[in-house]
Every structure is written in C-alpha cells, then in structure tokens.
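Running co-folding for S-adenosyl-L-homocysteine.
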Amino acid sequence: MTGSLTVVGLGPGNPDQMTPEALAAISAAEDFFGYFPYIDRLNLRANQRRHASDNREELVRAKTALEMAAKGGKVCVVSGGDPGVFAMAAAVCEAIDEGPVEWREIELSVVPGVTAMLAVAAKAGAPLGHDFCAISLSNNLKPWDIIEKRLIAAAQAGFVMAFYNPISKARPRQLGEAFDILRAHLPGTVPVIFGRAAGRPDEAIRIVPLAEAQGDMADMATCVIVGTAETRIIERDGNRPIVYSPRYFKGNA
Ligand code: SAH
C-alpha cells in the first residue's frame, strides 16, 4: 500500500505567517521529518511522531521519509520558509528521481510557504518591487567561482539580489567577498538590507549603503537583500527608512 508525502513550508517563524493549507497538511499527517528547530515549531498531537534530524542530512532525511511513505505512511517533511527555496522539496524530488520506481507512486504534494526574502522585504518596504533573483551563498553544494559569476551577472543585469545562507561558522568570509565583488559593479549608495530572524521575537532589520556593508553584519539567520541603482530609500524622522524598487524602470541599472 502506497502512502503520501507532503512537503510543507512553515513560513519564516511567525505562526501568523503559516498558511491554513500548511496547518491542514500538518494536522492530516502522522510522521514528521525535518531539521529539529522546525519540528519543534509544530504543535503535534500525542499520536503524531517526530523524526527530527540535523540540517546537513537533507538527502538521507528525504529517502527515509520516502521509504516510510512507500510503506503506506502519511508522512510530512517540513522546511522553514518555502520548501522549494533552498530546502527539502528539491531534496525529495532528487531522491525520487534517483530512487526505486515504486517511489513514483507515492502521492506527493508540496505546500508553499512565505520564504525569508519576502518576509524581510515586507519589513523594509518593497525592495523586490522590480526584477530580482535569489542566490544561496553557501559553497557546500556548489563551487565559489560559480557564485562569483552569478553575482557579477546579476549585478550587470540589474537584478535586486536576495542572499540566503550568507555566512556560517564554517564559511565566515563569503558574504564579505560577495560585497567586495558587488562594489566593483554597483554604486556604493545601493541599499543593503540585513533581515535577521524575520517574523521571530529576535527579529532585527538593518539598512546600510553597499559601500559600508560588511560580512559580519549578518549571521546564518539573516537574509540579505542588495538593491540596484534604481532602488530608493525614503528617510523618515523617528522611523526606519522605507526601501523600495520602483515598478517603473528609469534606466539606472
Ligand atoms: N526554505 C527557506 C530557506 C532555507 S536556507 C526559506 O524559504 O526561507 C536558510 C537561510 O534562509 C538562512 O541562512 C537565512 O539566509 C534564510 N532565512 C530563513 N529564515 C529566515 C528568517 N526568519 N529571517 C531571515 N532569514 C531567514
């Protein structure tokens, strides 16, 4: 008997930013797989089982979840934010792609969530109001020279950029190097937003010009948004500035 596997996005951390669809999918499932802080966010019933694991075990976790679903389980795999953005949905798809043919019979659904860059952008104003891209700065899964090429291409193309996985204890230098690369291609006045723990009690939003942006202004709970020459700042007395990228392109790419 084949069961089901639902990959659910929990949003950035604020329970109000979880969708009703995500809550219904969690209520309907029996076995839960995910990184332990995400599993801890769930209010599970006594008969719902937790299989929390370390963050670096994505593919192993996906395979274990699929094995259980193939045996008839009602399995849920959870991710923070959106499960399709640098997260478990792609790991599950990869495991199905490479796995036994029976796994293709599992009823698979992916429930979207509010991804970090959207939560951070909303706090700052509308920095993603024009064309943008998302780049993971982690070189655990791709080489750094590819990241460098993408940063330069995105800057030259005039995309606002959202950086995920900007820095970690094992990767302390990437974000600072990314800013150095961008300073060679963008004006120093371009706004950079450091959005830490958006939607959580310890949320912190900081806005600095690219000329002053430094790697140590972020940690691994931060999503960094780098504007373009078109991105504007509205200063406000006593209030955080508003950052937005106008819908109308004036030609300062
Ligand atoms: N699937 C997640 C991203 C996983 S990658 C999503 O859609 O949001 C992990 C990275 O996401 C972190 O290093 C950080 O850059 C970002 N992130 C996750 N939650 C965040 C939050 N609440 N505030 C700011 N950034 C966050």
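Result summary
The longest strand covers residues 4-9.
The two ends are 56 Å apart (CA to CA).
Job closed.
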